[in-house]
Amino acid sequence: MGRMGIYLDHAATTPVDPEVIEAMLPYLAEVPYNASAIHTGGRMASEAVEEARSRVARFIGADPDEVYFTSGGTESDNWALKSVRHVPVEQKPHLLVSAIEHAAVLESADTLARAGWMVERVPVTPEGRVEPDQVALRITSQTALVSVMLANNEVGTIQPIADIAAECRKRSVLVHTDAVQAGLYVRLDVDELGVDLLTLSAHKLYGPKGIGALYIRRGTAIRRWMDGGSHERGMRSGTINVPAAVGFGVACDLAVKRRDEDGPRVAERRDRLVEGIMDRVPECRLTGWGSDLLPGHAHFCFRGVEGESVLIGLDAAGVYASGGAACSSRSVSTSHVLRAMGMADEWARGAVRMTLGRSTTPDQIEYTIDAVASALADLRF
Ligand SMILES: Cc1ncc(COP(=O)(O)O)c(C=O)c1O
C-alpha cells in the first residue's frame, strides 16, 4: 500500500478491487436511476441489480430469489436472529449461539434475551472450535434457531457448519451462519452447508462497504425486516444502492475466480510471518493454531504487554494491524473470543491480529517481522 503503510488488517475491511470500481462507476454517473422506477432508466438500474443478485446467488449456490440485499453483515445478522418465527415469547423460545460470534449476533441475542427468549452460548475448545455435539446436546423442543459463524473474525477459525447444521436439521431447527469472513477463502454452498440463513458482506470481499446480503432458504419462516416501499420482494424496504450491489456481484465473481490461487499464496506468506515472529519474540502464543484457519489470519498473544501498545508501535513503523475485532478495538476489556477459548488475561491483554490480503508481499512480511520484534523489545526492555 506504499506510503499508506503495510496493510495487515484485511479482516477489518479489504480495499475495493479496481475491477469492482470500474463496474460500479457507470451506476454512479451515467445510470443514476432508482431501480424501482418504471422508466427505461429505472429498468436499466433494476437489470443491473438483478444481475448482481444472480452473481451473489451463484457465489453461495442459491437461487437469486433467496438473496436479499442489506446494508451489510451487521444488518443481515440482526435480521436473521430477530425475525425468525417461533413460539410466543411466553413459551420461552430458545436460541443457541456460539460464544465466539461477532457482536452483531451476540448483541442481537442479548436483545432477544431481554425480550424473554432463553439464550444459550455454546462453548468452544481452546483452539476456538465449536463442536457439533456441544450444539446438539443443547437443542431443546423450544429451540427456534442456532447461529454459528462459518469463520471467526478475530482468530480466523473455520467452524464445522455442515456437521452442526446436520444436527439441527435432524431436529428441525433452523440454522444461521455468518459467512462474512469465510467468503473469500471457503467455498460456499448453502446446500452442502445445510443452512437456512447465511450472512454476507461485500467489504470483506474486495467489494464496497455498506452492502451485504442475507440468504433466506425458500420457505423459511422469517418475518419482513424493514417496512416501507416493498423493495426486496416486500421483505426489506429501502431504495437499493445500485452501484454497491453491482460492485458486490462483481466482487463475488472475482472471489471465486481467485480463491484457488490466492488461498495458498496468502497462507504461505502468513506462515512465514508466524514463523518469523515466533522465532524472534519470546513469550508469544499463536491463537487458534490446531484448528482449520483462514489463510490470511495470524493472531498472537504476547504475554505481559498491552496489545494496544504493540499496535501503536507497529503503526509508528507503518504497519496497520488490529487488536481483534475492529469494532471492539477501543474497548479496554479483553476479547470475548479469547476468554471463550480459555486464554488467561495476562496473555489475552496482549492480543494482536494481523490479517494478510491478496496484495501482501514477502518484503512486507519481512519488514513486519522486524517491526513486531522491535516493538516488543521496546515494550519489554
Ligand atoms: C464475522 C463478521 N460478522 C459481521 C460483520 C459485520 O459486517 P459489516 O461490517 O458489513 O456490518 C463483520 C465485520 O466486522 C464480521 O467480521
Describe the protein's topology.
Layout: E1 6-7, H1 18-28, H2 40-60, E2 67-70, H3 73-82, E3 94-98, H4 103-114, E4 118-122, H5 132-136, E5 143-147, H6 161-170, E6 174-178, H7 190-193, E7 197-201, E8 212-216, H8 242-280, E9 284-286, E10 297-302, H9 307-316, E11 319-320, H10 336-340, H11 345-348, E12 351-355, H12 362-379
Parallel strand pairs: 1-11, 3-4, 3-5, 5-6, 6-7
Antiparallel strand pairs: 2-8, 7-8, 9-10, 10-12
Helix pairs in contact: 1-8, 2-8, 3-4, 8-12, 9-12
Structure, explained:
This protein has helices spanning 18-28, 40-60, 73-82, 103-114, 132-136, 161-170, 190-193, 242-280, 307-316, 336-340, 345-348, 362-379; strands at residues 6-7, 67-70, 94-98, 118-122, 143-147, 174-178, 197-201, 212-216, 284-286, 297-302, 319-320, 351-355. The mean pLDDT is 95. It has two domains: 2-15 and 258-379, Aspartate Aminotransferase, domain 1 (Alpha-Beta Complex); 18-254, 3-Layer(aba) Sandwich (Aspartate Aminotransferase, domain 2), CATH 3.40.640. It is of the alpha/beta class and 381 residues long. 51% of the residues are buried. Strand 6 (174-178), helix 7 (190-193) and strand 7 form a beta-alpha-beta unit. The chain is built from twelve helices and twelve strands. Helix 1 packs antiparallel against helix 8, helix 3 (73-82) runs parallel beside helix 4 (103-114) and helix 8 crosses helix 12 (362-379). The longest helix has 39 residues, at 242-280. The protein has a seven-stranded mixed beta sheet, with helices on both faces. A three-stranded antiparallel beta sheet has the order 9-10-12. The structure holds pyridoxal-5'-phosphate. Residues 72-74, 77, 102, 104, 149, 153, 178, 180-181, 201, 203, 212, 326 line the site of pyridoxal-5'-phosphate.
